[in-house]
Amino acid sequence: MLQAIGLTSTPRRDLPPLVDDLTFEARPGAVTALLGEPGSGKTTALRLMLELEPGRGVTYFRGRPLHRIPHPGREVGVLLGDVPGNPSRTVRGQLRMLCAAAGVPASRADTMLEVVGIAGLRDQRLGSLSLGMERRLGLAAALLSDPCTLLLDEPAAGLSPRERGWLHGLLRGHASLGGAVLFTTDDAKEAARTADRVVSIEAGRLVADQDAAEFARTRLRPRVAVRSPHAARLADVLGREARAAQRAVEIVEESGSRLSVYGSSCAEVGEAAFRHGVLVHQLADETGATGAPRPPVPQARTEPGAHPAALAALTAPAAPRAPGDPAGTDGQAAAAAPGEAGSPPAPAPSAPASGTVPSASATGAIPSASGTAPSASGIGRSAACAGRPASTVRRVGGPLRPLRYELCRVFGTATPVLTAAVVVAVSAVTALVLARAGGTPQTRLLAAWPQLMPLPPAALGAGLLGALAFGEEYRYPALAADRGTVPRRMGLLAAKLAVCAGLALALGALAVTAAAAALELVFGRGPLHNPGEWASPAASWAGLLIGCAWAGVLASGVFRTATAGLAAVLAVPLMVVPLVRKALDGPSAYPASGLAARLRGLAWAQWPPEADRLILGALRVMAQPVGTALVLSLMVLLCAYGFTGLRSRVRW
User: Does the pTM of the predicted model rise above 0.70?
Assistant: First the structure.
């Protein structure tokens, strides 16, 4: 059960808060609609529930707030915004990344693509998907870990009626197996047709909390839907009789053969048509429903041996409506065939008999990793949502789970490859220009680092990759449920630091190799000579690259934007280094010579003489203004990260 208590957003200057003391609940086994006009605070309410927005109040998911749940992504499935991820990532790569983040097998990505009917688009880029396909991918991501609660922000906005029917059918199937579904909408008729309970808000405040039948009876305008080949004549007859009886009747011609009559009843319209000999094809009371009634759904035909999840890719989930449904429909519509837009509706299974629950293949429940579907009785989900360990989803845990996610995130796009290509090209050209001008030391020549540049190209590339480390969590809505707890996960931070350090070292090696190859190709061995001391420059180079990458990681985690992470990397040579140089200017009264020998005396075991050179090289790097500034910046960013992100319970 989802319980939102006293949700209040941060007040704006001279304006009331967008959400003000909002309290309601979404029960398991039911679909709840959060209804309100645009700007009424629906999206802000969802963000407050997910702890993505500053404010007051608390939301309990099965009795626990989100920050107290060890793995929020397994408890809450979220669909926020239109873009489900990085536009350059493939559909399959996006779901595989989310599998690693949620701790579920990677094979579930292909299973969910079949469930939502876009298996044929697995290699397409996210930026090339249509709105309907984005919604399907967003639902696949939300259902990936088989959560008990779904939070969806305007999931049907911009979709065709057929896609809307498919979407609401999938939500109905999830609720029929014991899950709680909460979606926002600004269409009262849609809420009355598809939800079991409607929570109405206005200006951020609760207006009404009603079941769908009561909402339709008290807040929607009833009407009589009439279909007749003589609609114009019938409209004239009804108008004349209403004027004669002095009754307020409104007649709206919606199409050539359809009328909507407000202020009358089926009996009055039928008697008037009978008295004047007007043929009527349809006569029905409707409340808040528009358009033609949905046709009956025939039994689906499947090929022998078809995977159970593939059936859900072609069919709309069926579930019986609660008694008193004003629309008189089950909210289902045939779904489009996978990967095809504008194709005729595909057949869908008929609604199950009373007292039964649809099977997992027809409701969007996810088969286990072994390929077997959950029981049709729905015990698996009901037990899981009640807190009993009966989940059908295999979990993949352990300390390597954050590393799996980070590797999928980094190498799921071409960003590292493009960054490396740019760094190699710029380093080679810069090294050639510096060699032709002359007067540049070999270390700076190989690093392609002119005196006028604040950082070499490889360091800038490492800082950029580090700044993008938190981009998936804060820029895109794919990990919205986990975003509020991301800073407190030490395993995720360690994985990001480790992967970014490896990428930085690889960039540095590629840059030096490209510069050396370009110099030897153009000038021969003239600009290069064998260095007498290579350990200290190598340590200095590696420390600079790793420091820039880590500065980008920590700054993007603190400020939650990649731009701030890259700005922090550039601030080290432009702002911090001049301050350090000014502070270190002048001789020292107590020099730190002989530190390596004293460190050797403190060690339990004697290290080889080569280690002395490495320690001295590292100390020289830290004693330089750039090294000192980088170390100070990393310490400040680490403290800021701990202050902003680790204030609550820390988890691995």
Answer: no
Question: Which DSSP string corresponds to 58-89?
Answer: EEEETTEEGGGSS-HHHHEEEE-SS--S-TTS
Pair 84, 476: CB distance under 8 Å:
yes
Our CA angle for 107, 472, 547, nearest 5°, is 115
Distance CA(457)–CA(461), nearest Å, equals 6
| pLDDT one-digit tens code per residue, 365-393 | 333 333 333 333 333 444 446 543 345 66
Name the residue with tokens 């429940």: 365
User: CA angle, corner 606, sides to 602 and 609, nearest 5?
Assistant: 110
* Mean pLDDT of all residues in 558-570: 85
How does DSSP classify residue 559?
H
Cβ neighbours, 10 Å, residue 211: 16
CA 185 and chain centroid, separation: 19
- At 620 the three-state DSSP class reads helix
Burial of residue 353 (number of CB atoms within 10 Å: 0-12, 13-18, 19+): exposed
- Residue 586, SS3 per DSSP: coil
State which H helix or E strand residue 507 sits in: helix 490-523
Name the strand (E) or helix (H) holding 384: helix 379-385
How many CA within 13 A on the CB side of residue 249?
A: 23
The whole-chain average pLDDT of the chain stands at 76
**Torsion sign over Cα 574, 578, 579, 581:** positive
Backbone angles phi, psi at 26, to 5 degrees: -120, 115
Q: What angle do CA 600, 605, 610 make, to 5 degrees?
A: 55
Which pair of tokens denotes residue 312? 């859900």
Distance CA 431, CA 442 (A): 10
Do 542 and 503 contact (CB within 8 A), yes or no?
no
Are 547 and 631 within 8 A, CB to CB? Answer: yes
User: From CA 401, how far away is CA 314, in angstroms rounded?
Assistant: 33
Maximum C-alpha span of the chain: 113
Q: What is the pLDDT of residues 169-194, one digit of tens each?
A: 999 999 998 899 999 999 888 898 89
- pLDDT bin (cut points 50, 70, 90) of residue 529 is confident
Instruction: Give me the sheet containing 55-61, strands edge to edge.
Output: 22-26, 2-9, 55-61, 64-65
